[in-house]
Amino acid sequence: xxxxxxxxxxxxxxxxxxxxxxxxxxxxxxxxxxxxxxxxxxxxxxx
Amino acid sequence: xxxxxxxxxxxxxxxxxxxxxxxxxxxxxxxxxxxxxxxxxxxxxxxxxxxxxxxxxxxxxxxxxxxxxxxxxxxxxxxxxxxxxxxxxxxxxxxxxxxxxxxxxxxxxxxxxxxxxxxxxxxxxxxxxxxxxxxxxxxxxxxxxxxxxxxxxxxxxxxxxxxxxxxxxxxxxxxxxxxxxxxxxxxxxxxxxxxxxxxxxxxxxxxxxxxxxxxxxxxxxxxxxxxxxxxxxxxxxxxxxxxxxxxxxxxxxxxxxxxxxxxxxxxxxxxxxxxxxxxxxxxxxxxxxxxx
Amino acid sequence: xxxxxxxxxxxxxxxxxxxxxxxxxxxxxxxxxxxxxxxxxxxxxxxxxxxxxxxxxxxxxxxxxxxxxxxxxxxxxxxxxxxxxxxxxxxxxxxxxxxxxxxxxxxxxxxxxxxxxxxxxxxxxxxxxxxxxxxxxxxxxxxxxxxxxxxxxxxxxxxxxxxxxxxxxxxxxxxxxxxxxxxxxxxxxxxxxxxxxxxxxxxxxxxxxxxxxxxxxxxxxxxxxxxxxxxxxxxxxxxxxxxxxxxxxxxxxxxxxxxxxxxxxxxxxxxxxxxxxxxxxxxxxxxxxxxxxxxxxx
Lengths: 47, 292, 298
Hints:
Chain B has 16 helices and no strands. With 292 residues, chain B is an all-alpha fold. The model of chain B has no long low-confidence stretch (mean pLDDT 94).
């Protein structure tokens, strides 16, 4: 789907929940990526 | 979404859904009436008053009574899942499985109480929130075999489709995109409150038939519309009004759809306990004419 | 509609038969899920296979043709795939070229990309789960360990992926991982296709960490922030990362772009590891030789 209907702009998002997770050490070490989460949620919104 | 089993197998028009329920009810009613008739034939020595009572009370429930009973138990299931501190997605899946089960079965086949814990247990497994049968049975004060007895029947009635797209992730997605589109024009603390309220509205929506008529994002936008119409409309205007690529999305169409969805969500009648009790009794008499 | 003609395998939770779909005479495989003896009811692996295969329809993912109940057993009807990549790699009588390797890798990455864009992790990629159809198409199979990326705070189990193909973050017990773990497995499979022997064959979980870092170097907090939070980190041996030359000597037949792609998929830090899109759009797939067309593959 090339018409993604959204632009993933991490800097525009104020998401205390995700920000909190991505600053946890075990999340960072595991490879947790906030942009992956944002992409997933936006995909579900625009599917 | 169109590739998903949720869209392919569990999307209906209101007419199709009503038709499905009428057919399921009719099939079960026929079975019940046949059974009562043969009961009466096999018990010729019953008194005329007994026969009259059986003929009056041992009757099938109507399709409408079925829907109300299923919705009553679905709400109980949600309450129970919340009490067990199950994650939102697991609770939503349990309710979804439970309601779908009765799009392929009648409450006269299997009474809701019988499938109640099975649905919850299976939803936990399906959503990677595995609880062993022993601890589940203990928590729910039920028996292992009662929980497991209908697991296959449930899976078969779900037509072997287990993946659910609940509107919660879509809500999170719109929460992000609204910040991007309405950059600087929206108060973030207020957005947090809107988000929380929308989550509740969505959980209510999952108890209604909108899940069969609309896609998760549409349900989410309807919840947002219900919560704060100005915010929803401003977002949609800015987002889609200047949609240059033709045919991608018509704002007017979308607006009509989510308004209709919002109305359907709000119209949902919450069944009363008395009503449910009456229907359960009716099913009992239908299944046990002798008890009449 | 379906016959079970020949029993071809038995796993922990299923027996596999070969059969025929009567209406169109199509060869199929039937995975009959054992139901007796599972205390907790239907086995999780069966639920996962059904749940995820129902959502995917892609030439490089095994097709779930049908599901049915019979004699209180759950039966998954799958497309018939007679061979797998492990057989090919092990059979020294089969010669294969860089173009063949490129073709198998391309199909594997397309299958992985389709899973990931559906937010489904496979979590057990290895050569014998990459099956080959009669037309040469390679397909991801065995979704018994798969799971969809749930909510961001979910705790995922680290005890997944067959050891030799297990990503370093899993070896350290990570519980918030991403699709990067599948990409690691593909990187190891790529190396194995070029070497024709397993690339990181650890004897046990501890040895697996040692074998991995001996081959690729031991990461530090500098190149993998917070790695030292893993409790197992303090007990490991330190090895320097291999130089480009050492890698070239190890993978003689590999072009620069092949090594670049492999190193991208085998980046130790999961944050930096290439995802399926970056891998699919790498130079390796546009330089010569072109990937062999599937029908002509061994």
